[in-house]
Hints:
The protein is mainly alpha-helical.
Amino acid sequence: MPRNLYLSKNLAVLLYQMNFVGHYFVDHGVQDADYTLGKILPDLLRNFSKSIRLNASDLEGKGQGEPLYMGIRMHFRTDRVFHDSALFRERSAEINGRLKNSVLSIRKYRFFFAHVLLEMLIDRCLLIRHPGLGEGFYHQLAAADKQTLSDFFEAQGWLHLIDGFWAFLQRFISSEYLLQYVHNESLIFALGRIGERVGLKSAVGMADEGLVGLIDSYTDTLCKELPGFFESLTKKISDDDK
Length: 242
């Protein structure tokens, strides 16, 4: 059984927003812990508390040249380009169609699950194609500076939340659950926990042959497509910055 397969409920709901590895992979040659944290911070905050949400407009005129702020800005640029890409639109639509044969076929949430599963599979393929990438991601996060993050929270009016968020971040790091994405059991278990969060009562498990087949099929497809996709994504982000 994969290590950490049975995630705690608090960590499992982090999977509401995916692409942690994908966000890290963009510019992962920049070895700066605060920059790395910034690249995933908007999604971490959204999962930490429903009462706080970070938008690109919140950064206007702030933190110019500071790694944490630079990472956050890269997060928003990456999201914008990714969600406007043909790969995202086409693969999400295909997965959406194939989920009709799965326990995740509830019409109200099917596109949501297709979006989530696509992003999980992208992270999975990056971990498969780039051994050590996940470990490097967690190593970078573990070196992030609490005072820098505290200063950022103070600037946003969230200083009273810093200790709770820091503890939340340490649990996220120590769990290393993203490393388990290479196992079908881990992906399916995570999807089941997300299903519980949105009120899905049907069990999601390895017995769902349609879901297992979908995961295997799109792992093969995406692992072939991602090198060219990330090359074009990086170029588009660079062009948008000019």
